[in-house]
User: Fold these one by one.
Assistant:
Number 1:
Amino acid sequence: MQQRILRPTRAARAGGRPPWRLLMESRAPGVDIANFDAFRDAGFDVTVCEGPDESPDCPLVRGEPCPLVDEADVVLFDLDDLPARWAVLDALRASRPALPVVVRAQGPAALGYPGCSTIRTTTSVNGQVSALRKAVMRWTTSA
């Protein structure tokens, strides 16, 4: 597991609201060195967790707290066909059912995952930012 926190730009904070804390949960190659400027410019603090791949070696799956999830305002979760990834998503939803989660997936199986917004892996960065904003806004207005 790896994390990196990127702070939003001054222009993004100028809107008078605190930054949203985004947890990017992804096994994508290079995610640990990706450029998250579009997310920062939109007002997100970005924390990256590469999570487990073959075995569900995740504190949530073991029934333990995860400080990354506990501190998040929204999660962008890359879902693939590995059973461990599904186990992590299930545990995440069980630990914080009200937390907004946007699932980014290739196939239609993940589309409509209960309690989550879903987008395809081919969604543009601007589309991802838009989906995250909508998810957070629904959460903040319903809370």
Number 2:
Amino acid sequence: MGWFEKTIMRIGNWGTAIGAVFMSAIALIITATVLGRAFRIALPGTFDLVETLVVVGIAFALVYGQLQDRHLRAEIAIERLRGRVKGAVESFLGILNLFYWAVLLWAAVEVMLDKWSAGEETEILKVPIIPFRGVWVFALILMCLLLLIRLFHHIKGLVKGRVEK
């Protein structure tokens, strides 16, 4: 594993930890809101907080899934294939997967730039949303890089005559 791969993996692991912290914060905010309502105490802005924090949690949950290779796949069909046919099908599916995430990345960048110029902010707290859109774009970039790394290793193994996961 080269320095580029190690760097991407390290960034992905840090992002995963940050995502876990944000999801924990969301759980605390929701708990505080529920308890506040039980005592008839309104906590304004909690929806804004959850709405923005969840972006970070979900973005890095996707990255974590890719780092751990725990994403949804059609393994029931692919595991029946053998040798180069299996490698070719998995490589093709890897290319399709990368294309899908690259299109999502492109769309997210377009939306981010459009909303940035509009000065988008949360409704109650008036917090700018652009940093959260930036985190989403960053996570999508990480996803694409991780998919490229995995695809590169898979195709390299296919060319050498062995199929890698």
Number 3:
Amino acid sequence: MTKQIETIRKTRTFLIEHVKDLNADQTNHIFPGFNNNIIWNLGHMVATQQGICYKRAGLPTLINDTIWEKFRSGSKPQGFTGEHEIDYIKQMLLTCLDQLERDYQYNKKIFDHYATWTNRYGVELTSIDDGIEFLQFHEGLHSGTIMTMKRMLVK
């Protein structure tokens, strides 16, 4: 699984670099035809990773409850996300992934009580391994959305 985690890390590092020059107004902008924005997609990637890997195993998340509620599955942008919170999300994109890698490598037993579930795509996830594999797909979806929105900003 460390190869899958490394793939996610490279994607997240690329995205952080890709949006580093955007200001808060740009990352909060919702384009016609979209129901979210760049910062929501980034925050959602963090929240989803925490939900799939930690909450499904009955473990606490590494993010605060405000971030969890604001960006979890089924949420949508509610108001303006300021610079401080944007910086926190960018930091958590890598910090949460680093912690997952450590937990997976050195303390995998904490994921032993992973609750089996079927996601909205019809994929059954029965273990932390399934969760990490699915994250690659999920991150790809949101990475594509972020890239599209960034291109729309610079037109």
